[in-house]
Amino acid sequence: MKKTKEIRILVTNDDGIDSPGIFALVHSMKRLGKVVVVAPDRQQSAVGHALTVSDPLRVVPFHRNGEMFGYAINGTPSDCVKLAMSSLLDEKPDLVVSGINHGQNTSINILYSGTVSAATEGMLIGIPSIAVSLASYSHKADCAVAADYSFDIAKKVLKTGLPEGTLLNVNIPAVPKEKIKGIKITRQSDSQWNDHYEKRIDPFGRDYYWFSGEYKVIDKDLETDDAALLAGYVSVTPIQFKFTNYDAISKLKVLEKKSK
After folding, report:
1. Fold of domain 8-189+221-242
2. pLDDT tens, per residue, the chain with 260 residues
């Protein structure tokens, strides 16, 4: 009798390997198969798709409750996925899951998100990938509901796969499970940040600035990620990395010029 191949899942995040969100995610992913954790050794929120190119990367085993939990990397979320694929894993995983992030990653936030960038890195390598975020910035927030939805969505992705060049960006309301209205496939909203940097003075009398911008949800269409999330739905947005504006190409042809 042929032995069934064990599912392999790579888990990472941008909140750091000791974040409550990644603990909850790993617990749920273990119900699906073998999990390997490769995550930043510290907080890496809003680093986007940054890579470490001028400093050495170090891999340190991380233990939790006396047991091996995963590998901590002194780099970015994208570093973690690239290093795992090239040097740490014996086999290519069947799935990459990044999260559970503390704070939603909707609309324009995906450009800044280390959580989404890590999943993007998995997608670029050709692996079905999911980014998961909980709409609460509190590290005391209960991640159990988000972990349950992560399990359900990951299970379906493992069964059906994803379109080529596409990853799933999942955002989950921070409410009890009975108050969640369901799962909704969405598009990115047109929300925006009104940036504000508060000027402060350090103990040495030097000026410094602290970001405290306001996030404004502009697009109230229920088919968008922000609106669906606010209405109590789990938002699932298929996203891709291609930024080309194909509609603009023909209009910009006037800029073309051949060298003499």
Report:
1. Stationary-phase Survival Protein Sure Homolog; Chain: A, (3.40.1210)
2. 556 789 999 999 999 999 999 999 999 999 999 999 999 999 999 999 999 999 999 999 999 999 999 999 999 999 999 999 999 999 999 999 999 999 999 999 999 999 999 999 999 999 999 999 999 998 888 999 999 999 999 999 999 999 999 999 999 999 999 999 999 999 999 998 999 999 999 999 999 999 988 899 988 899 999 999 999 999 999 999 989 999 999 999 999 988 77
Is residue 106 within 8 A of residue 189, CB to CB? The reply is: yes
Contact 81, 35 (CB under 8 A): no
Torsion angle, CA of 152/158/163/167, rounded to 10 degrees?
Answer: 60
Amino acid identity, position 1? M
Beta carbons of 235 and 184 less than 8 angstroms apart? yes
Instruction: Quickly tell me which residue has 């409410």 as its tokens.
Output: 175
* Alpha helices per DSSP H over the chain: 20-29, 77-83, 114-124, 144-160, 225-230, 246-249
pTM of the model: 0.94
Sorted by where each begins, the domain ranges of the chain are: 8-189+221-242
